[in-house]
Write a structure and sequence with these properties.
13 helices, globular, alpha/beta
Length: 285
């Protein structure tokens, strides 16, 4: 299958991270392989991680012939991955925290409410609880807290109440079923679908996305050599705040970006997904 995903901020990634011949880099979120390919064309070796085995299979043909080693692992396992490969430190790490368009387009993954599919949302479909497990088993308070904390949905209590009421009749099984319930109790705001924040919250909870990011950021100082670069592309404020805070540690990092770098008008027009992308880069002291 040919990937449909287009990597965001490609020129900015190369300019700010500046991979050089002979260097060893990590693409912590391979996805369809776009960024890994860019890095591998400049550097000596790239270690590519992804917790979704389907993404590794999708990326492999695009990376054929390039010095890329693909590993099925979450990026918070980076220290162990490098240790297993006998690598003490690398010259740079890039983590694009966004979703691959090919993942979102696969209704069977349950990551999007645009097409009806099973209420799953796991990035690694081989492990862990699903979104349906959370929606059908969490208490009302725990559900409201999850939706508010991870989705920043102001009507989280009302949404949780309606979910608990509805599941007494029958369990939630599909994305469309959940989206319909949310839309009936949350008014539309501008062009944003009322289900957007609730789905974000559940996806973050299912995949422990913020916990994984915190563990990656904590691990970076030990795996990036002095003078090495680290870059993170985030797509919402919960992620960006964490990256901003980590890169402000002057004992460890020199921030190369005082403010996050965003897509140009031309890129945003050509690739709408890039409109919310924010790239922060820092150099290891």
């Amino acid at each position: 299958m040919t990937p449909t995903h287009v990597s965001v901020l490609p020129a900015e990634v190369l300019r700010l991270l500046d991979p050089q011949p002979g260097e060893t880099w990590v693409d912590a979120t391979v996805g369809a392989g776009g960024h890994a390919r860019l890095l591998a064309q400049k550097a000596g070796r790239v270690i590519g991680l992804d917790q979704d085995p389907g993404m590794l299979a999708l990326a492999r043909p695009a990376l054929d012939g390039l010095p890329v080693t693909l590993v099925h692992a979450n990026f918070d396992q980076l220290p162990d991955v490098l240790a297993n490969l006998g690598i003490a430190a690398v010259d740079g790490v890039l983590a694009d925290l966004g979703f691959c368009s090919d993942q979102l387009a696969d209704a069977a993954r349950g990551l999007s409410f645009r097409e009806d599919g099973p209420l799953d949302m796991r990035l690694d479909p081989t492990a862990g609880a699903t979104a349906a497990d959370i929606v059908n088993t969490f208490g009302e308070q725990a559900l409201a807290d999850t939706i508010f904390e991870f989705g920043e949905e102001r009507k989280s209590r009302w949404v949780a109440k309606r979910i608990v009421e509805r599941r007494k009749e029958r369990k939630f099984e599909t994305t469309g079923d959940l989206a319909d319930v949310v839309r009936r109790c949350v008014p539309r705001s501008g062009g944003i679908d009322p289900a957007t924040r609730v789905f974000q919250a559940l996806r973050i909870a299912v995949n422990d996305e913020l916990g994984s990011l915190d563990r990656l950021l904590a691990a970076l100082p030990a795996v990036v050599r002095p003078g090495g670069r680290a870059g993170v592309i985030s797509f919402h404020s919960l992620e960006d705040r964490r990256v901003k805070h980590a890169f402000r540690d002057r004992d460890v990092w020199d921030a190369r970006t005082k403010k996050p770098v965003e897509a140009s008008d031309s890129e945003a027009a050509a690739n709408p997904r890039s409109r919310s992308a924010k790239l922060r880069v820092a150099v290891r002291r």
